[in-house]
Amino acid sequence: MGSHRSSLNTQAPVMEKSYQRGIDLGYEPQVDGLLRFVEHGSPSPLIRWHQHDEYELHLVTATRGRMFIGDFIGNFEPGNLVLTGPRLPHNWVTTHYEEGDSAALRDRCLIFLDEPIRHAAEYIPEMRSIFPLLERARNGIQFFGISDEVSKHLDQIRDSQGTRRMAAFMELLSDLAQHENYKLLSSEQLQNFGDHKAQSRISEIVDYISDNFHQHLYMGDVAERFGMSESRFSRYFRKETGNSFTDFVNQIRVSKACQLLTETDKYISTICYEVGFNTVANFNRRFSELRGMTPTEFRKNAELRFLHS
Of 170, 159, 97, which is closest to residue 134 (Cα–Cα)? Predict the structure, then answer.
């Protein structure tokens, strides 16, 4: 597997609006209706820390990397399937390509609004069965074991119109609502209603931390870099991301460590220092807190999953 490290969130985030969704970016032509479908590769200007007013069902078809959903940070690979709710910040950043430095198709996404579904359910009570799914999506939901079926649903939605399109969409939501193998991602429903300037600022901070996690990062230094006192920065960062500065850095470091434990034969002590921890004892402690097992146990479990796959 080739190694590739892309810069995180190189563009300032925007509160994404429908008029920005041109066919040149991979969106289907604008049509009157509830749904909007998009497919795009990587790199792409759509890969950035952003949010919007709609739900987004996001299926990764190629590449591996890190995903940011609200205050959640984790790894993704082909088959990764996540439903995000309105105004929940999110991004999927590719760090490894299977071949070369790009992927022709990395993402398949379905975007839809909340309000029309709520209004329709007033007259069609059967639609209320999907309300629990929509509420869970406000934290971000990752689904397991259903990606192939969802991809077929997306094909049907992409290739149909009118009532057939709506029927395919409702069948998809019904399958997701009944699927029991999932986990909620963000511990908080981080629905940031700040203006563009505020979103741009936190994105720049997240970019900087994500690009420099392997170095010695001190909150005071980062605060000074972005023109804030340490106490003000601490309050601001927690409010915008749902994490303390230290927790956020540790999540990124452990996430990268998981990738190295799975994809390389490097010594655990080597990985420890490579991802930015000062001591193996601290690395083991933080890893166990976030993953519920030691790095050694994680690597062993990953090897067992590979042998039985």
Answer: 170
Residues 6+ apart with CB under 8 A from 267: none
Burial of 249 (0-12, 13-18, 19+ CB in 10 A): buried
Decide: 59 and 107 in contact? Cβ < 8 Å.
yes
Quote the tokens at residue 77.
Answer: 């690979």
| Alpha carbon distance 179, 129 (integer Å) | 13
Tokens describing residue 84? 């995000």
Question: What separation, in Å, do the N-terminal and C-terminal C-alpha atoms of the chain show?
Answer: 18
The predicted structure's pLDDT at residue 75: 86
What is the 3 state secondary structure string of 191-221?
A: CCCCCHHHHHHHHHHHHHHHHCCCCCCCHHH
DSSP letter at 7 equals P
* Residue the block writes with tokens 């605060």: 223
**92 class by beta-carbon count within 10 Å (0-12 exposed, 13-18 middle, 19+ buried):** buried
Predicted confidence (pLDDT) per residue in 222-270, tens digit: 999 999 999 999 998 888 777 799 998 998 898 888 878 877 889 999 9
Q: Which domains does the chain have, with CATH numbers?
A: 15-184 (2.60.120.10), 212-307 (1.10.10.60)
Of the listed ranges 3-17, 158-172, 181-195, the least confidently predicted one is 3-17
